[in-house]
Amino acid sequence: MTFLMAGHDTTNVATCWALYLLAQYPHEQDLLREELYLNCVIEETLRTHTPLPTARRTNLKDEVIGKYYIPKNTEIFIGISVLQRLTEIWGPTTDNFDPKRWLNPSLSKNITNLNYLPYLNGARGCIGNKVALAEAKILLGFQIKKRVFPIPKPDPYLGLAVSIVES
């Protein structure tokens, strides 16, 4: 059940953001209709508005990272949305929605499994990432063929606010 719920929820979030971003950038809608641009739009949406902005992990042993000592069993929060907006990785236009960046071969040299983590990776990564990507491609591809998304009115409540609630 977790597999099914997690895959649908994150896909829903990512697809909604993709449609919202495409509405803000109508020229990207046109490119998406004309080319095989779907992967670029999905990757850029996941980079700019990742459904999972943070992740929490517990280290298994004492570690020293740079000048920082991290004792065993320390909870570590990974700022995924921060990593995916680092200008040293993504360039000076990191805050812009620019799917064309994924067509740039020099960018792929900078992308690693440590700075692009929409589904995390490794043993604790999302087991449904392939399903989620397939769903997103189907949903977005179908929607963009049938409709033109108008530019939405600015919404002061939409943004990149991240909070942590623990119970």
Automatic annotation (TrEMBL):
Keywords assigned by UniProt, alphabetized: Heme, Iron, Metal-binding, Monooxygenase, Oxidoreductase
Entries under Pfam families matching the protein: p450 (PF00067)
InterPro entries: Cyt_P450, Cyt_P450_E_grp-IV, Cyt_P450_sf, Cytochrome_P450_Monoox
Positions of heme binding: C126
Molecular-function GO terms, alphabetical: heme binding; iron ion binding; monooxygenase activity; oxidoreductase activity, acting on paired donors, with incorporation or reduction of molecular oxygen
Cofactors (names): heme
Family listed: Belongs to the cytochrome P450 family.
Protein name (database record): Cytochrome P450
